[in-house]
Fold:
Amino acid sequence: MYESNHLAKHLRTASLKQNDAVFIHNHENDQLISFENFFQNAEKIASALISAGIKPGDRVAMQVEKSSSVVELYFGTILAGACFLPLNTAYVPEEIDYFLRDSQPAIFVCDTLKIQGLTKIAKSNKVCHLWTLSADGTGTLVDARNAESPGFNGVKRDHDDLAAILYTSGTTGRSKGAMLTHMNLQSNAETLFKSWHFTNKDILIHALPLYHTHGLFVATNVSLLAGSSMLLMKNFNTDAICKRMPQSSVMMGVPTFYVRLLEHPDLNNAAKNMRLFISGSAPLLSQTHDLWKEVTGQAILERYGMTETNMNTSNPYYGERRAGTVGISLPGIELIVTDPSTGRILKDGRTGMIEIRGPNVFKGYWGMPKKTAEELRDNRFFITGDLGKISKDGYITLVSRSKDLIISAGYNIYPKEIEQLVNLIDGVLESAVIGVPHPDLGEAVVAAIVLESGFSLNEDIIMDSLHNRIANFKLPKKLMFVKKLPRNSMGKIQKNILRESYGGTFSNSLD
Ligand code: MCA
Ligand code: AMP
Structure:
Protein backbone atom coordinates (compact mmCIF):
# COMPACT_ATOMS: atom_id res chain seq x y z
CA MET A 1 0.00 0.00 0.00
CA TYR A 2 1.07 3.59 -0.68
CA GLU A 3 3.89 1.94 -2.70
CA SER A 4 5.31 5.10 -4.28
CA ASN A 5 5.32 7.26 -1.13
CA HIS A 6 8.43 6.39 0.87
CA LEU A 7 7.39 7.34 4.40
CA ALA A 8 3.70 6.42 4.13
CA LYS A 9 4.53 2.99 2.75
CA HIS A 10 6.85 2.18 5.64
CA LEU A 11 4.57 3.54 8.35
CA ARG A 12 1.60 1.57 7.01
CA THR A 13 3.20 -1.88 6.75
CA ALA A 14 2.78 -3.24 10.30
CA SER A 15 -0.84 -2.22 10.70
CA LEU A 16 -2.00 -3.81 7.42
CA LYS A 17 -2.42 -7.06 9.31
CA GLN A 18 -4.50 -5.47 12.08
CA ASN A 19 -6.80 -2.94 10.47
CA ASP A 20 -9.42 -3.30 13.21
CA ALA A 21 -7.01 -2.81 16.10
CA VAL A 22 -7.10 0.51 17.98
CA PHE A 23 -4.50 3.04 16.88
CA ILE A 24 -5.73 6.08 18.82
CA HIS A 25 -7.68 6.06 22.05
CA ASN A 26 -8.83 9.60 22.81
CA HIS A 27 -8.54 10.01 26.55
CA GLU A 28 -11.03 12.87 26.85
CA ASN A 29 -14.06 11.11 25.33
CA ASP A 30 -12.91 7.47 25.26
CA GLN A 31 -13.33 7.43 21.48
CA LEU A 32 -11.46 4.54 19.80
CA ILE A 33 -10.02 5.00 16.31
CA SER A 34 -8.92 1.85 14.47
CA PHE A 35 -5.97 1.80 12.09
CA GLU A 36 -8.41 1.44 9.21
CA ASN A 37 -10.45 4.45 10.34
CA PHE A 38 -7.31 6.50 10.84
CA PHE A 39 -5.83 5.76 7.41
CA GLN A 40 -9.17 6.30 5.67
CA ASN A 41 -9.47 9.73 7.24
CA ALA A 42 -5.87 10.54 6.31
CA GLU A 43 -6.55 9.43 2.72
CA LYS A 44 -9.62 11.68 2.60
CA ILE A 45 -7.58 14.60 3.91
CA ALA A 46 -4.94 13.91 1.25
CA SER A 47 -7.66 14.00 -1.43
CA ALA A 48 -9.01 17.24 0.00
CA LEU A 49 -5.53 18.78 -0.12
CA ILE A 50 -5.10 17.70 -3.75
CA SER A 51 -8.57 19.08 -4.60
CA ALA A 52 -7.45 22.37 -3.06
CA GLY A 53 -4.54 22.46 -5.49
CA ILE A 54 -1.67 21.23 -3.31
CA LYS A 55 1.43 20.27 -5.32
CA PRO A 56 4.32 18.04 -4.20
CA GLY A 57 6.56 19.92 -1.79
CA ASP A 58 3.96 22.60 -0.92
CA ARG A 59 3.83 23.45 2.76
CA VAL A 60 0.75 22.66 4.86
CA ALA A 61 1.10 24.73 8.03
CA MET A 62 -1.05 24.29 11.10
CA GLN A 63 -1.54 25.81 14.53
CA VAL A 64 -4.26 23.81 16.23
CA GLU A 65 -5.00 22.21 19.58
CA LYS A 66 -4.03 18.60 20.10
CA SER A 67 -6.48 16.00 18.75
CA SER A 68 -6.51 12.82 16.69
CA SER A 69 -7.37 14.96 13.65
CA VAL A 70 -3.90 16.51 13.89
CA VAL A 71 -2.32 13.07 13.49
CA GLU A 72 -4.62 12.45 10.51
CA LEU A 73 -3.65 15.80 9.00
CA TYR A 74 0.03 14.92 9.43
CA PHE A 75 -0.35 11.60 7.64
CA GLY A 76 -2.71 13.05 5.01
CA THR A 77 -0.13 15.73 4.21
CA ILE A 78 2.56 13.08 3.73
CA LEU A 79 0.23 11.07 1.47
CA ALA A 80 -0.52 14.18 -0.57
CA GLY A 81 3.24 14.60 -1.17
CA ALA A 82 3.27 17.88 0.73
CA CYS A 83 5.40 19.09 3.60
CA PHE A 84 3.90 19.19 7.11
CA LEU A 85 4.63 22.34 9.13
CA PRO A 86 3.23 22.30 12.68
CA LEU A 87 3.40 25.40 14.89
CA ASN A 88 3.29 25.73 18.67
CA THR A 89 -0.23 26.60 19.87
CA ALA A 90 1.25 29.21 22.21
CA TYR A 91 2.59 31.39 19.38
CA VAL A 92 0.93 34.79 19.15
CA PRO A 93 -0.15 36.32 15.79
CA GLU A 94 3.06 38.34 15.48
CA GLU A 95 5.07 35.10 15.68
CA ILE A 96 2.73 33.30 13.25
CA ASP A 97 3.22 36.15 10.78
CA TYR A 98 6.95 35.40 10.72
CA PHE A 99 6.47 31.66 10.14
CA LEU A 100 3.95 32.18 7.32
CA ARG A 101 6.16 34.79 5.67
CA ASP A 102 9.20 32.55 5.90
CA SER A 103 7.61 29.27 4.81
CA GLN A 104 4.96 30.53 2.33
CA PRO A 105 2.51 27.67 2.92
CA ALA A 106 -0.24 26.92 0.40
CA ILE A 107 -2.62 25.99 3.22
CA PHE A 108 -2.75 27.14 6.82
CA VAL A 109 -5.01 25.29 9.25
CA CYS A 110 -5.82 27.23 12.41
CA ASP A 111 -8.13 26.91 15.38
CA THR A 112 -11.66 28.14 14.68
CA LEU A 113 -11.35 30.46 17.70
CA LYS A 114 -8.29 32.15 16.25
CA ILE A 115 -9.47 32.69 12.69
CA GLN A 116 -10.38 36.35 13.15
CA GLY A 117 -6.93 37.32 14.31
CA LEU A 118 -5.18 35.24 11.68
CA THR A 119 -7.16 35.92 8.48
CA LYS A 120 -5.36 39.18 7.70
CA ILE A 121 -1.98 37.63 8.42
CA ALA A 122 -2.70 34.63 6.16
CA LYS A 123 -3.88 36.96 3.37
CA SER A 124 -0.90 39.26 3.59
CA ASN A 125 1.36 36.22 3.33
CA LYS A 126 -0.50 34.96 0.24
CA VAL A 127 -1.68 31.73 1.85
CA CYS A 128 -4.09 30.21 -0.72
CA HIS A 129 -6.43 28.52 1.78
CA LEU A 130 -7.10 29.22 5.43
CA TRP A 131 -8.86 26.20 6.93
CA THR A 132 -10.01 25.59 10.49
CA LEU A 133 -9.82 22.69 12.88
CA SER A 134 -11.08 22.77 16.45
CA ALA A 135 -10.16 20.43 19.25
CA ASP A 136 -13.72 19.00 19.15
CA GLY A 137 -13.05 17.69 15.65
CA THR A 138 -15.06 20.28 13.71
CA GLY A 139 -13.93 22.89 11.19
CA THR A 140 -13.57 23.49 7.46
CA LEU A 141 -10.73 20.96 7.24
CA VAL A 142 -13.12 18.30 8.50
CA ASP A 143 -15.83 19.49 6.07
CA ALA A 144 -13.34 19.22 3.20
CA ARG A 145 -12.30 15.77 4.41
CA ASN A 146 -15.88 14.56 4.67
CA ALA A 147 -16.58 15.59 1.09
CA GLU A 148 -13.97 13.08 -0.13
CA SER A 149 -13.83 9.27 -0.29
CA PRO A 150 -11.09 7.04 1.04
CA GLY A 151 -8.79 5.10 -1.29
CA PHE A 152 -6.12 7.67 -2.09
CA ASN A 153 -2.92 5.76 -2.71
CA GLY A 154 -0.32 8.47 -2.10
CA VAL A 155 1.65 10.90 -4.28
CA LYS A 156 5.08 9.65 -5.36
CA ARG A 157 7.78 10.82 -2.98
CA ASP A 158 11.33 9.48 -2.72
CA HIS A 159 13.49 9.06 0.35
CA ASP A 160 15.20 12.43 -0.19
CA ASP A 161 11.99 14.46 -0.62
CA LEU A 162 10.78 16.74 2.15
CA ALA A 163 8.21 15.38 4.58
CA ALA A 164 8.19 18.19 7.17
CA ILE A 165 9.62 21.51 8.22
CA LEU A 166 9.90 22.12 11.96
CA TYR A 167 11.00 25.49 13.22
CA THR A 168 13.69 25.70 15.83
CA SER A 169 14.68 29.03 17.32
CA GLY A 170 17.86 30.67 16.13
CA THR A 171 20.63 32.17 18.23
CA THR A 172 20.26 35.42 16.30
CA GLY A 173 16.59 35.56 17.22
CA ARG A 174 15.29 34.34 13.82
CA SER A 175 13.71 30.89 13.86
CA LYS A 176 15.09 28.40 11.36
CA GLY A 177 12.97 25.82 9.55
CA ALA A 178 14.65 22.41 9.74
CA MET A 179 13.89 20.48 6.54
CA LEU A 180 13.27 16.81 7.27
CA THR A 181 13.09 14.20 4.55
CA HIS A 182 11.08 11.00 4.23
CA MET A 183 14.29 9.06 4.93
CA ASN A 184 15.13 11.14 8.04
CA LEU A 185 11.81 10.25 9.62
CA GLN A 186 11.52 6.66 8.40
CA SER A 187 15.06 5.63 9.34
CA ASN A 188 14.82 7.10 12.83
CA ALA A 189 11.43 5.57 13.54
CA GLU A 190 12.78 2.19 12.42
CA THR A 191 15.82 2.49 14.68
CA LEU A 192 13.82 3.55 17.73
CA PHE A 193 11.11 0.94 17.25
CA LYS A 194 13.77 -1.78 17.28
CA SER A 195 15.91 -0.27 20.06
CA TRP A 196 12.95 0.19 22.40
CA HIS A 197 11.30 -3.13 21.52
CA PHE A 198 7.93 -1.72 20.52
CA THR A 199 5.28 -4.28 19.49
CA ASN A 200 1.61 -4.24 18.56
CA LYS A 201 0.82 -5.07 22.20
CA ASP A 202 2.08 -1.69 23.38
CA ILE A 203 -0.12 1.15 24.55
CA LEU A 204 1.74 4.45 24.65
CA ILE A 205 0.68 7.23 27.00
CA HIS A 206 0.85 10.28 24.74
CA ALA A 207 0.67 13.49 26.78
CA LEU A 208 3.16 15.55 24.73
CA PRO A 209 2.30 18.28 22.25
CA LEU A 210 1.96 17.24 18.60
CA TYR A 211 3.96 20.13 17.13
CA HIS A 212 7.45 18.98 18.16
CA THR A 213 9.69 16.09 17.16
CA HIS A 214 9.13 14.32 20.48
CA GLY A 215 5.32 14.00 20.43
CA LEU A 216 4.93 14.02 16.64
CA PHE A 217 7.68 11.88 15.13
CA VAL A 218 9.15 9.89 18.01
CA ALA A 219 5.80 8.93 19.53
CA THR A 220 3.58 8.73 16.46
CA ASN A 221 5.95 7.24 13.88
CA VAL A 222 7.23 4.58 16.26
CA SER A 223 3.65 3.60 17.18
CA LEU A 224 2.64 3.40 13.52
CA LEU A 225 5.68 1.30 12.64
CA ALA A 226 5.01 -1.09 15.47
CA GLY A 227 1.25 -1.18 15.03
CA SER A 228 0.83 -0.16 18.66
CA SER A 229 -1.84 2.07 20.25
CA MET A 230 -1.59 5.60 21.54
CA LEU A 231 -3.64 6.92 24.44
CA LEU A 232 -3.91 10.53 23.29
CA MET A 233 -4.20 13.00 26.18
CA LYS A 234 -4.87 16.65 25.51
CA ASN A 235 -2.68 17.86 28.36
CA PHE A 236 -0.24 16.52 30.84
CA ASN A 237 -2.12 15.68 34.01
CA THR A 238 -0.64 13.47 36.74
CA ASP A 239 -4.02 12.20 38.04
CA ALA A 240 -5.14 11.11 34.58
CA ILE A 241 -1.80 9.48 33.81
CA CYS A 242 -1.69 7.53 37.08
CA LYS A 243 -5.24 6.38 36.42
CA ARG A 244 -4.42 5.16 32.92
CA MET A 245 -1.00 3.61 33.63
CA PRO A 246 -2.36 0.19 34.69
CA GLN A 247 -3.84 -0.29 31.16
CA SER A 248 -0.78 1.09 29.37
CA SER A 249 2.79 -0.06 28.76
CA VAL A 250 5.04 2.85 27.72
CA MET A 251 5.29 6.58 28.42
CA MET A 252 7.42 9.19 26.67
CA GLY A 253 7.97 12.46 28.47
CA VAL A 254 10.17 15.43 29.25
CA PRO A 255 11.87 15.45 32.69
CA THR A 256 9.14 17.72 34.11
CA PHE A 257 6.65 14.86 33.60
CA TYR A 258 8.76 12.63 35.84
CA VAL A 259 9.38 15.33 38.46
CA ARG A 260 5.63 16.01 38.74
CA LEU A 261 4.60 12.34 38.71
CA LEU A 262 6.96 11.66 41.60
CA GLU A 263 4.74 13.92 43.70
CA HIS A 264 1.72 11.68 43.05
CA PRO A 265 0.78 9.31 45.90
CA ASP A 266 -0.44 6.56 43.51
CA LEU A 267 2.67 6.40 41.34
CA ASN A 268 4.14 3.28 42.90
CA ASN A 269 0.98 1.22 42.34
CA ALA A 270 0.07 2.75 39.02
CA ALA A 271 3.46 2.07 37.40
CA LYS A 272 3.50 -1.67 38.07
CA ASN A 273 2.21 -2.69 34.62
CA MET A 274 4.43 -0.32 32.64
CA ARG A 275 7.35 -1.81 30.74
CA LEU A 276 9.17 1.39 29.73
CA PHE A 277 9.55 5.04 30.72
CA ILE A 278 11.43 7.21 28.22
CA SER A 279 12.73 10.73 28.89
CA GLY A 280 14.25 13.33 26.60
CA SER A 281 14.25 16.90 25.22
CA ALA A 282 15.99 18.25 28.35
CA PRO A 283 18.41 16.94 30.97
CA LEU A 284 16.99 14.44 33.44
CA LEU A 285 18.61 15.04 36.82
CA SER A 286 20.34 12.00 38.34
CA GLN A 287 18.26 12.59 41.50
CA THR A 288 15.04 12.23 39.47
CA HIS A 289 16.37 9.08 37.82
CA ASP A 290 17.33 7.55 41.18
CA LEU A 291 14.13 8.53 42.94
CA TRP A 292 12.02 7.14 40.09
CA LYS A 293 13.83 3.82 40.40
CA GLU A 294 13.29 3.81 44.14
CA VAL A 295 9.54 4.48 43.84
CA THR A 296 8.64 2.41 40.75
CA GLY A 297 11.48 -0.12 40.59
CA GLN A 298 12.16 0.95 36.99
CA ALA A 299 15.06 2.86 35.47
CA ILE A 300 13.98 5.66 33.14
CA LEU A 301 15.51 5.30 29.69
CA GLU A 302 17.01 8.66 28.72
CA ARG A 303 17.72 9.50 25.10
CA TYR A 304 19.04 12.56 23.25
CA GLY A 305 17.71 14.20 20.12
CA MET A 306 17.28 17.41 18.20
CA THR A 307 14.77 18.82 15.75
CA GLU A 308 17.47 18.70 13.06
CA THR A 309 18.37 15.06 13.66
CA ASN A 310 15.51 13.30 15.41
CA MET A 311 17.04 10.93 17.98
CA ASN A 312 20.82 10.42 18.15
CA THR A 313 21.51 8.35 21.24
CA SER A 314 19.65 6.20 23.71
CA ASN A 315 20.34 4.33 26.88
CA PRO A 316 19.97 0.62 26.24
CA TYR A 317 16.74 -1.33 26.59
CA TYR A 318 18.69 -4.23 28.05
CA GLY A 319 21.79 -3.28 30.00
CA GLU A 320 22.69 -0.36 32.16
CA ARG A 321 20.59 2.81 31.91
CA ARG A 322 23.17 5.15 33.32
CA ALA A 323 21.85 8.19 35.19
CA GLY A 324 23.23 11.52 33.98
CA THR A 325 24.04 10.12 30.52
CA VAL A 326 22.05 10.01 27.32
CA GLY A 327 23.29 6.52 26.48
CA ILE A 328 25.00 5.24 23.37
CA SER A 329 24.81 6.28 19.69
CA LEU A 330 21.84 4.65 18.02
CA PRO A 331 22.59 2.05 15.32
CA GLY A 332 23.59 3.67 12.02
CA ILE A 333 24.29 7.04 13.62
CA GLU A 334 27.87 8.34 14.00
CA LEU A 335 28.58 10.64 16.91
CA ILE A 336 31.95 12.32 17.34
CA VAL A 337 33.30 14.90 19.77
CA THR A 338 35.40 17.65 18.22
CA ASP A 339 37.43 20.66 19.25
CA PRO A 340 34.98 23.55 18.75
CA SER A 341 37.68 25.86 17.39
CA THR A 342 39.51 23.48 15.01
CA GLY A 343 36.92 20.79 14.29
CA ARG A 344 39.51 18.06 15.05
CA ILE A 345 38.24 14.87 16.68
CA LEU A 346 38.85 14.69 20.44
CA LYS A 347 39.49 11.30 22.01
CA ASP A 348 39.94 9.87 25.52
CA GLY A 349 36.72 11.18 26.97
CA ARG A 350 37.58 14.83 26.46
CA THR A 351 34.74 17.34 26.33
CA GLY A 352 33.99 19.05 23.02
CA MET A 353 31.39 19.72 20.36
CA ILE A 354 29.04 16.86 19.55
CA GLU A 355 28.71 16.24 15.83
CA ILE A 356 26.29 13.80 14.23
CA ARG A 357 26.15 12.02 10.88
CA GLY A 358 23.60 9.53 9.62
CA PRO A 359 20.36 9.04 7.70
CA ASN A 360 18.61 10.95 10.48
CA VAL A 361 20.41 14.25 9.79
CA PHE A 362 18.22 16.91 8.17
CA LYS A 363 18.64 18.42 4.71
CA GLY A 364 19.29 21.99 5.81
CA TYR A 365 17.47 25.11 6.98
CA TRP A 366 14.60 26.32 4.81
CA GLY A 367 15.76 29.31 2.73
CA MET A 368 18.98 29.69 4.73
CA PRO A 369 21.86 28.17 2.71
CA LYS A 370 24.48 30.19 4.61
CA LYS A 371 23.23 29.05 8.01
CA THR A 372 23.03 25.47 6.70
CA ALA A 373 26.64 25.60 5.52
CA GLU A 374 27.76 26.91 8.93
CA GLU A 375 26.22 23.97 10.78
CA LEU A 376 26.27 21.11 8.28
CA ARG A 377 29.78 20.19 7.14
CA ASP A 378 30.58 19.07 3.58
CA ASN A 379 31.20 15.57 4.98
CA ARG A 380 27.58 15.68 6.31
CA PHE A 381 28.47 15.92 10.01
CA PHE A 382 26.01 18.24 11.76
CA ILE A 383 27.48 20.54 14.42
CA THR A 384 24.90 20.27 17.19
CA GLY A 385 25.91 23.11 19.53
CA ASP A 386 25.82 20.60 22.41
CA LEU A 387 29.05 20.04 24.32
CA GLY A 388 29.66 16.57 25.66
CA LYS A 389 31.98 13.64 26.15
CA ILE A 390 32.07 9.90 25.48
CA SER A 391 33.12 7.38 28.13
CA LYS A 392 35.40 4.43 27.32
CA ASP A 393 32.36 2.15 27.01
CA GLY A 394 30.51 4.53 24.69
CA TYR A 395 28.09 6.35 27.02
CA ILE A 396 27.59 10.01 26.12
CA THR A 397 27.23 12.74 28.70
CA LEU A 398 25.96 16.17 27.68
CA VAL A 399 27.98 18.72 29.61
CA SER A 400 26.67 22.08 28.42
CA ARG A 401 25.64 23.98 25.31
CA SER A 402 27.70 26.33 23.16
CA LYS A 403 24.50 28.00 21.94
CA ASP A 404 22.84 30.58 24.15
CA LEU A 405 19.68 28.57 24.72
CA ILE A 406 17.32 27.95 27.64
CA ILE A 407 15.38 24.66 27.79
CA SER A 408 12.32 25.08 29.97
CA ALA A 409 10.32 21.84 30.47
CA GLY A 410 11.35 20.77 26.97
CA TYR A 411 10.57 24.06 25.23
CA ASN A 412 13.53 25.88 23.71
CA ILE A 413 13.76 29.57 24.44
CA TYR A 414 16.38 31.81 22.86
CA PRO A 415 17.46 34.65 25.17
CA LYS A 416 18.27 36.92 22.23
CA GLU A 417 14.63 37.01 21.14
CA ILE A 418 13.48 38.16 24.58
CA GLU A 419 16.37 40.60 25.05
CA GLN A 420 15.50 42.28 21.74
CA LEU A 421 11.91 42.85 22.88
CA VAL A 422 12.85 44.01 26.39
CA ASN A 423 15.38 46.45 24.96
CA LEU A 424 12.65 48.07 22.85
CA ILE A 425 10.66 49.07 25.94
CA ASP A 426 10.82 52.78 26.65
CA GLY A 427 13.09 53.34 29.64
CA VAL A 428 15.12 50.11 29.29
CA LEU A 429 18.80 50.68 28.61
CA GLU A 430 19.79 47.05 28.14
CA SER A 431 19.00 43.53 29.31
CA ALA A 432 20.41 40.03 29.58
CA VAL A 433 18.24 36.93 29.67
CA ILE A 434 19.48 33.75 31.30
CA GLY A 435 18.20 30.33 32.34
CA VAL A 436 18.50 29.33 35.99
CA PRO A 437 17.75 26.00 37.69
CA HIS A 438 14.07 25.46 38.46
CA PRO A 439 12.77 22.41 40.36
CA ASP A 440 9.78 21.88 38.07
CA LEU A 441 10.83 23.27 34.69
CA GLY A 442 14.51 22.32 34.80
CA GLU A 443 15.46 25.82 33.71
CA ALA A 444 13.43 29.01 34.06
CA VAL A 445 13.82 32.34 32.28
CA VAL A 446 15.21 35.26 34.29
CA ALA A 447 15.79 38.72 32.79
CA ALA A 448 18.34 41.14 34.25
CA ILE A 449 17.35 44.66 33.25
CA VAL A 450 19.20 47.97 33.39
CA LEU A 451 16.98 51.04 33.23
CA GLU A 452 17.92 54.34 31.67
CA SER A 453 18.64 56.95 34.33
CA GLY A 454 15.54 58.81 35.42
CA PHE A 455 13.17 55.91 34.57
CA SER A 456 11.44 53.79 37.18
CA LEU A 457 9.65 50.93 35.40
CA ASN A 458 8.13 48.16 37.47
CA GLU A 459 7.60 44.44 36.69
CA ASP A 460 4.02 44.94 35.49
CA ILE A 461 5.00 47.48 32.86
CA ILE A 462 7.72 45.22 31.48
CA MET A 463 5.51 42.11 31.50
CA ASP A 464 2.57 43.98 29.91
CA SER A 465 4.84 45.04 27.06
CA LEU A 466 5.95 41.46 26.45
CA HIS A 467 2.48 39.86 26.60
CA ASN A 468 0.99 39.36 23.13
CA ARG A 469 4.38 39.82 21.50
CA ILE A 470 5.79 36.40 22.38
CA ALA A 471 4.36 33.05 23.44
CA ASN A 472 3.60 32.83 27.16
CA PHE A 473 6.12 30.07 27.88
CA LYS A 474 8.94 32.43 26.83
CA LEU A 475 7.96 35.13 29.34
CA PRO A 476 10.51 35.66 32.14
CA LYS A 477 9.49 34.00 35.40
CA LYS A 478 11.47 36.66 37.26
CA LEU A 479 12.78 40.15 36.49
CA MET A 480 15.89 41.51 38.19
CA PHE A 481 16.48 45.26 38.02
CA VAL A 482 20.24 45.84 38.16
CA LYS A 483 22.47 48.91 38.03
CA LYS A 484 24.73 47.43 35.35
CA LEU A 485 25.46 44.13 33.61
CA PRO A 486 28.77 42.33 34.27
CA ARG A 487 31.09 42.55 31.24
CA ASN A 488 34.51 41.18 30.38
CA SER A 489 37.41 43.27 29.10
CA MET A 490 36.06 42.95 25.55
CA GLY A 491 32.73 44.42 26.68
CA LYS A 492 30.87 41.10 26.32
CA ILE A 493 28.12 40.44 28.87
CA GLN A 494 29.22 37.70 31.28
CA LYS A 495 26.10 35.56 31.54
CA ASN A 496 27.96 33.01 33.65
CA ILE A 497 28.26 35.62 36.42
CA LEU A 498 24.55 36.40 36.18
CA ARG A 499 23.77 32.66 36.33
CA GLU A 500 25.88 32.38 39.48
CA SER A 501 24.23 35.41 41.07
CA TYR A 502 20.66 34.32 40.33
CA GLY A 503 21.13 30.53 40.31
CA GLY A 504 19.29 30.16 43.63
CA THR A 505 16.23 32.22 42.63
CA PHE A 506 13.88 29.22 42.45
CA SER A 507 15.70 26.77 44.68
CA ASN A 508 12.81 26.50 47.13
CA SER A 509 9.86 27.23 44.91
CA LEU A 510 7.55 25.27 42.71
CA ASP A 511 6.00 28.32 41.04
C1 MCA B 1 3.84 25.92 30.07
N1 MCA B 1 4.29 27.08 30.61
C2 MCA B 1 5.62 27.11 30.56
C3 MCA B 1 5.99 25.91 29.94
N2 MCA B 1 4.87 25.19 29.65
N3 MCA B 1 6.50 28.02 30.95
C4 MCA B 1 7.79 27.77 30.72
N4 MCA B 1 8.23 26.64 30.13
C5 MCA B 1 7.34 25.70 29.73
N5 MCA B 1 7.74 24.59 29.11
C6 MCA B 1 3.48 28.15 31.19
C7 MCA B 1 2.34 28.58 30.27
O1 MCA B 1 2.76 29.58 29.39
C8 MCA B 1 1.33 29.08 31.28
O2 MCA B 1 1.68 30.39 31.65
C9 MCA B 1 1.53 28.18 32.48
O3 MCA B 1 2.86 27.63 32.35
C10 MCA B 1 0.54 27.05 32.54
O4 MCA B 1 0.37 26.49 31.25
P1 MCA B 1 0.02 24.97 31.01
O5 MCA B 1 -0.14 24.71 29.55
O6 MCA B 1 -1.10 24.59 31.92
O7 MCA B 1 1.35 24.30 31.49
P2 MCA B 1 1.65 22.85 31.87
O8 MCA B 1 0.55 21.94 31.47
O9 MCA B 1 2.06 22.82 33.28
O10 MCA B 1 2.91 22.54 30.88
C11 MCA B 1 4.04 21.99 31.33
C12 MCA B 1 4.40 20.87 30.37
C13 MCA B 1 4.64 21.50 28.97
C14 MCA B 1 3.28 19.85 30.27
C15 MCA B 1 5.66 20.20 30.89
O11 MCA B 1 5.60 22.53 29.08
C16 MCA B 1 5.07 20.51 27.94
O12 MCA B 1 4.24 19.79 27.37
N6 MCA B 1 6.37 20.42 27.63
C17 MCA B 1 6.87 19.48 26.65
C18 MCA B 1 7.45 20.21 25.49
C19 MCA B 1 7.97 19.24 24.42
O13 MCA B 1 7.26 18.37 23.92
N7 MCA B 1 9.22 19.39 24.04
C20 MCA B 1 9.83 18.53 23.02
C21 MCA B 1 10.53 19.39 22.00
P3 MCA B 1 0.54 31.48 31.98
O14 MCA B 1 -0.15 30.93 33.22
O15 MCA B 1 1.34 32.71 32.22
O16 MCA B 1 -0.33 31.53 30.79
S1 MCA B 1 11.31 18.33 20.74
C22 MCA B 1 12.88 18.28 21.34
O17 MCA B 1 13.21 18.93 22.26
C23 MCA B 1 13.93 17.35 20.83
C24 MCA B 1 13.82 16.99 19.42
C25 MCA B 1 13.89 16.10 21.68
O18 MCA B 1 14.98 15.63 22.03
O19 MCA B 1 12.80 15.62 22.00
P1 AMP C 1 15.21 21.20 19.90
O1 AMP C 1 15.85 22.40 19.32
O2 AMP C 1 13.86 21.42 20.45
O3 AMP C 1 15.27 20.13 18.93
O4 AMP C 1 16.08 20.77 21.16
C1 AMP C 1 17.26 20.06 21.00
C2 AMP C 1 18.13 20.25 22.19
O5 AMP C 1 17.52 19.67 23.34
C3 AMP C 1 19.44 19.52 22.05
O6 AMP C 1 20.37 20.23 21.27
C4 AMP C 1 19.86 19.36 23.49
O7 AMP C 1 20.52 20.53 23.93
C5 AMP C 1 18.53 19.21 24.22
N1 AMP C 1 18.25 17.83 24.60
C6 AMP C 1 17.53 16.89 23.98
N2 AMP C 1 17.50 15.73 24.67
C7 AMP C 1 18.25 15.95 25.78
C8 AMP C 1 18.61 15.16 26.90
N3 AMP C 1 18.20 13.92 27.05
N4 AMP C 1 19.42 15.73 27.84
C9 AMP C 1 19.84 16.99 27.71
N5 AMP C 1 19.51 17.79 26.69
C10 AMP C 1 18.73 17.28 25.73
In short: The chain has a mean pLDDT of 96. The pocket of adenosine monophosphate (ligand 2) is lined by residues 168, 213, 280-283, 302, 304-307, 326, 384, 386, 398, 401, 407, 412 (CB under 6 Å). The first strand starts at residue 22 and ends at 26.
